DNA sequence: GATCCTCGATCGATCGATCGATTGGGCTGG
DNA sequence: CCAGCCCAATCGATCGATCGATCGAGGATC
């Protein structure tokens, strides 16, 4: 349960960056959260910004790895549900990490910001192609595919800000509800039970377990 | 065009808080943006946090004032389109101000955070009642009204982060597109032209002009 | 002369980061 | 077995820089 010091620092940083913000988090505050001297921090890490960069890179890569595992043979409707599932699942189970990625990218300097943006663009490209495929095949119908993509991603990312696993909504209900809303937004409404079955058949648990191994308890 | 010094400070603060973040914005940086000494700032304002608080309060009040002007006699479908219009319009025309409100509330201390949260809750309550009315009358059909409300607000707020008036999407197209997506998400899909006409008939320009007088050029 | 406005100087506090000193467990050569 | 050594790990002290904020000394305007 304890984990190495390096991992403790990482966890504390994710928590503090997510709740207070990167610039509002002091190096001493971080050290105190871990229970070590602020000097000792630098034995395990580089600069504070190195830490932020590592967090964002890891988070992005895991999400992209998971999304890349979705078979391109599936029809757009199913692929979109898969993307929504993975996005919502990751934001619900790792709310602080994803919040840091979504809100603190601007604290990175030029080079690293560019690297992060490149990963983000790659990820959003997966969404764009699914939506484009669906529009081409007549499964989806939207006024502007680009705006629809932005709206969908924004709405799914919001999960990190409010969802609590201790609430009355289960992770299964959450992901299904968002998948249903996403399809509806694309003028491709489906019955709730239908989507529930669709996601069951997709069976993304292996994908999730591969991309977030520490969550497979 | 110039405006008083106080207003220049306000504008510069909105810009810096939105782009760099509240904690990443220094008092000297703010003064430099205005073209005055950092000491002179304090002749026009209180603390840096006073400034942030004033910005958030003003922004919230204007949005609530506008939303309150929507007649409660209208049916849920029209009222929802009105809420979407005002929300998207304000986020598209005042992206920095709304971004500060959406992202920097956590930088307020206890008392002021509570006041801001109270206003936010009041505003979101307007959305909640419209959605509830629509669900009760059968106009809307969603699995979870609360989640739908959160998703809609999140998706509409995202406009502040990407929309550019110089792009190919007009403000009119933008608001109509979002209203259509919102209705679709609520299983109440309508034709694009229908929503366009609906918003034209609503004619929210007077509402907008009353809540954001400086935009009425 | 009184009021408004501005600025340089400066306050104490805190920032991120580095330094040298110390500790202690583990490895090596004999 | 043990003396000698190494090195990861930790900490107190401190670096220069910057933070938000204050003060009093001047102009400027009426």
From TrEMBL, chains A, B:
Boundaries of every HTH tetR-type domain copy: 3-63
Coiled-coil residues: none
A Gene Ontology molecular function term of the record: DNA-binding transcription factor activity
DNA-binding region(s), chain positions: 26-45
One Pfam family it belongs to: TetR_N
Presence of the UniProt keyword Manganese in the record: no
Family matches, as Gene3D superfamilies: Tetracycline Repressor, domain 2
Protein name: TetR/AcrR family transcriptional regulator
Protein source organism: Actinomadura harenae
